[in-house]
Amino acid sequence: MSKIPIMKTERLLLRPITHEDLEAMYDYSSRENVARYVTWQAHTSLEDTKAFMALIFNGYQQGNLMLWGIEYAGTIIGTIDFVTINDTHKYAEIGYVLSEDFWNKGFTTEATKKTH
Which of 48, 67, 69, 110 sits CB 3.0–4.6 Å from 81 for a disulfide? Predict the structure, then answer.
């Protein structure tokens, strides 16, 4: 079970990813425009997305992943997470991916403000 806190913003629900997010996650993860800005290749099948979700679930179980699904209007439109955290120097690197249908609408900024 994930210990990721659920947080709300004006328009978003930030929450752990669940198996029910498969189709929505595949929708944006399969787009070349989205994949060119992240460290993984565009998903070519639901199996690719299932494998990616398995990594997320393993990270939750191990307690070494702080990744939220970005939910808007009942659907996951992306994720946001802490890529690195440096306690000594008091900084963290945030990574995110967002469906291109929601680019340039302030969603990532809104989610980022809530996670720090």
Answer: 67
